[in-house]
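(Fold this chain)
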Amino acid sequence: MVTITKNGTLFLIPAPIAEGTTNLVIPQGTLEVIRRLKFFVVEEIRTARRFLKTVPTPFPIESLTFSVFNEHSKELDARDILMPALTGNDMGLLSEAGLPCVADPGWQIVAHAHQLSIPVAPLTGPSSLMMALMASGLNGQRFAFSGYLPTEKTLLIRKIKELEKKAREFNETQLFIEAPYRNLKLFQTLVTTCQESTLLCLAIDLTGTHNQIVTKTIGAWKKLTPDIHKVPVLFLLNTET
């Protein structure tokens, strides 16, 4: 007699963008799913535990099982990581902030889940990309996310010009991010590279205590120095409203 084991579901769990906002930005339905999970794939165990304590789960944190997969993971043994789901247990894939798999290495886990016939279920929560686009006043019908831009100055300038050209030709809003400690350097390169009529939106500390979303022309930004050092910022660029 052959026993067929039904695979568990891999739930994609959003996390708050700013600390201390779990009950404000994570829907109750999502929290209810999180509370019944005992197996998690996470980027960092310490921050995952800190988030789960704010949910909170009915199980002791020490009783939960965490598998780590992040940008430093060189090899992915998906079958080992997803074994709880392959033996019938539901699992959660938890991002460090915002939605899993968007500017996040978790997409590789999801790809392997599909290959292993493990159902994948995305849960609702905050997305900094969508929130910034919604509030920017820039075209939300056509847009592209480029992640991190090059850090070397010549390559960075070339990339900015390429994105500005795409925005001008297709009215396509360009979204990108930078490590918080390099925000000002990127901002300064943008205002010295782009045309004065080009529109730049800074979405600063979304959902946090210093939340601010401001869209101005490059010409107007040249007269300002925004307070964006070491805070999360999304940059949005377009040439039309």
